[in-house]
Predict the 3D structure of the following.
Amino acid sequence: MLELMAPNKAKSGATRAVPQLSGVQLKVQAARLGQAVPSLAAAYAQALARWLGDPVLRLAGRPIITECYRSPERQDELYKQGRSKPGPVVTYKRGGESKHNTLPSKALDVAFILADGEVSWSGLLLSKFARLMKAADARVRWGGDWPKFKDWPHFEV
Ligand SMILES: [Zn+2]
């Protein structure tokens, strides 16, 4: 959930516009997906295709990968948040301990671009996307299913 590309602003006030990504954003998405282990990348690609093929879901928001591989140094910085640095706790993993820290990565984080260009971490949208991810590959685990520290945007294998 953290670093985001600049969201693409919706065009000319169409109220039911399908959220679109720019060419640059699509390249960023492809690069992030390319960091994932094949099983996770395939599950995401299938879930995304199903989402975009659904007439209701595609209007609700466009799934994006906000982060896939994360360096151990960056993981350590995130670990400080809510501890030695301000902000809420976002992880219980130190550098090297997270499934984001291997390359290829065994984890990716998801959000949604809405029609107005805003980025959303809606629990409802994430739970719907999680269903598609788990249907694509039963090995996928969703952070929203974890009993203690729920990590709604997080998917891993
Ligand atoms: Zn994650």
About this structure: The longest strand covers residues 107-113. Residues 5-14 have pLDDT under 50 and may be disordered. The first helix runs from residue 23 to 33.
